[in-house]
Amino acid sequence: MGKLSSGVKRHKQSLKRRARNRHVRSTMKSAVKEVRAQIQEKGEKSAEALRNAASVIARAGAKRVLHKKTASRKIARLAAAVHKATAKK
Known about the structure:
The protein has helices at residues 2-41, 46-62, 68-87. By secondary structure, it is mainly α. Helix 1 packs antiparallel against helix 2, helix 1 packs parallel to helix 3 (68-87) and helix 2 runs antiparallel to helix 3 (68-87). The chain starts with a helix and ends with a helix.
């Protein structure tokens, strides 16, 4: 019966990991939406929102919720969007 109990344990672990990953991904998406909203409003706080979002995305990459290069790409594209929006002023 050893295999059965190890399967149960693995399933419990996967559920925990899934919950953790979903939380990180959800937090990341919210941060990105905040940056995009600031860009749309031409808000002065877009740079601050970008700093926060970059931190959240980098942490997701470090925790392997995202691939490191995917995290870097997302940060770069957000930064470019903020730069483009603030450069027009």
